[in-house]
Design brief:
Largest sheet of chain A: 7 strands, mixed
Oligomer: homodimer
Order of helices and strands of chain A: EHHHEEHEHEEEHEEHEHEHHEH
Helix content of chain A: 40-55%
Structural class of chain A: alpha+beta
Number of helices of chain A: 11
Strand order of the largest sheet of chain A: 2-3-4-11-5-6-7
Strand content of chain A: 15-25%
Distance between the termini of chain A: 10 Å
């Protein structure tokens, strides 16, 4: 089933609203979810509406909380999200960090007491539209053993980088610190396929190519000790530094119903113009991309793409032609709508 | 052959001095090289003395240049290294960035017109000793194809993170964005050893385990498109933003004798105390590490280590018992000493 992104956003926002989420929060959260679907990152898309609603219903998220500063030093600050939705807390925090970066040249803003904040590209996009560079990180609940360990200990703690370019498409690198997203293993398991070696371990910590065994086990960090260290560094900035949870104390959104997640984020916004004129920067980055695209290509490669380009094209395509929702997801959303007396799209 | 680190530093500094490098520059560069050997990162150690001397002799490095600020905004700044040695430029830049971070809470300092700056841990160590957090990046000459390409296009652009802990050993993650550092392949080639599959391709883009063929070919980025994107993001901050070279315009230290390297760096220093008291931060990070170390271990793993711990132990061991230099390297250094009328150690 194909749906227009605006309709999908309105549907999700209305459902969230009926569940008691204030309009501005419902709107921001829905925009974040639909934005992920627009970019082909379905794992962070409207498929999460249901779990988000359950978190509110169980009192695990407080959709009325304001995000407030608990430390403020101008170019550095620390915010407390009051346990509101991560996408809302993150959007409020980003707006503040962007204002501060334009005022001071840079802003490093830590955030604690937040929740799953969706796709990093949602924030990156907003920063590059204002001609700013952004590095954003978040911690996450445990899914990967650290190097030498067996059980999930580290989150797949994501990091995203965004830079404006002279081209239509900004540079947007939005990555988890695992080799692959768990969603890819779910897909392989559903299809009865094996997974390549190096993606995951089973629940005994042994390497496996069995997708089902991998789902009971743990994802592996990107590049062994490097990914393990990178995931931990992101957690140190997002969790240890901010007063949020870190490691085991970041709660699982799907499994922990006793306590809020206490996710932490870290935003670093840079005013490019303090280094060189924005146009010179975007021009230089455009040249870089041109050179990269002109390189000889590996066999079977039609075009060399830079970070965010594939997702940008998907977004453009989906904005025109609508987002294709799998039948089961559409049915789930429709059922969710019925529960809150909200008509499904169409 | 075993040498005391102080003797090795003095030897290298004296040789560099005889080659016309001012004392403070010679000292800093030698300390950076020996620091890498102390930590077991031989690829960035005194093995590079010879190429550093050749760069000076050929006029490719100006050891007399001062590092000066070309943009200054307090919490952001841009420095020009005047084409001096990277370790010296980096050390001067870091001192400035640390002062600024203590004054303002954060400092993002870009550096252009520099050279190969050695191991990132050299800078990280200095920052954590002052209770500061550091993220430092550098670009490097082309050694890896970007995803979809064949020829070397991106550098193995390294990134390092450092945080003080409540334990004796700080968190120091110092990593190249390749599967392994090129230096490790240089060491293997010098020793006549093969390299594991997955590290590199030959000059035709085919996988190889031959270290010499790999040096003529290309390293592979960490985790495919993720490492490729991360390398480019580091180059954007270190090169595009600073006015240094980027991509192909960062010259190869070993192969390009017509132009300076024009390497760029990016330092981001954070004053932890602006977020929470330093002791609370180090205590929290200590707890994190304790929890990680208490995890069940994979078979054959005696202890779960965090980033920088193995290197710290090597450093302590080498400071006590001396650094073991391979016979061939010791002979090369001795010959280098003779050329500059400097007695070899012992």
């Amino acid at each position: 089933m194909r749906v227009q992104p605006d309709q999908l956003t309105a549907f999700c926002a209305t459902v969230l609203g009926r569940a008691g989420v204030p309009e501005v929060v419902a709107r921001t959260v829905s925009e974040s979810l639909v934005y992920a679907d627009l970019r082909g990152v379905e794992s962070h898309g409207v498929v999460r509406t249901e779990i988000y609603l359950r978190r509110v219903a169980e009192g695990m998220v407080d959709p009325h909380a304001e995000t407030r500063l608990v430390q403020d030093n101008g170019c550095t600050a620390l915010a407390d999200g009051g346990n509101n939705f991560g996408a809302y807390v993150g959007a409020v925090a980003l707006d503040l960090a962007m204002d501060r970066a334009q005022q001071h040249g840079i802003c490093a803003l830590g955030v604690r007491n937040s929740n799953h904040f969706g796709t990093g590209a949602f924030y990156v996009q907003r920063a590059v539209e204002r001609g700013l560079a952004l590095i954003v990180m978040s911690n996450a609940s445990q899914t990967m053993p650290s190097t030498g360990g067996v059980r999930p200990f580290l989150g797949t703690n994501p990091i995203a980088f965004g830079f404006p370019t002279s081209r239509q498409v900004p540079f947007v690198l939005d990555m988890a610190t695992s080799v692959v997203a768990r969603g890819k293993i779910i897909v392989a398991a559903k299809r009865g396929e094996t997974i390549p070696p190096g993606w995951a371990v089973d629940r005994h910590g042994n390497p496996t190519t069995d997708a089902e065994a991998a789902l009971e086990g743990a994802l592996l960090p990107l590049g062994g000790p490097k990914g393990s260290g990178l995931s931990m560094a992101i957690d140190i900035l997002s969790g240890v530094l901010t007063g949020a949870g870190f490691g085991p104390s970041v709660r699982n959104m799907y499994e922990d119903w006793a306590e809020p997640q206490n996710v932490g984020h870290f935003f670093m916004v840079l005013d490019i113009a303090r280094f060189l004129p924005l146009a010179a920067f975007t021009e230089r980055l455009g040249q870089y991309i041109d050179l990269m695209k002109a390189e000889p290509r590996a066999s079977g490669v039609e075009e060399i793409l830079y970070a965010g380009e594939r997702e940008y094209r998907l977004e453009a395509h989906h904005r025109c032609d609508g987002i294709e929702l799998p039948e089961r997801l559409a049915a789930d959303l429709q059922a969710l709508g019925e529960r809150y007396s909200v008509n499904w799209i169409g």
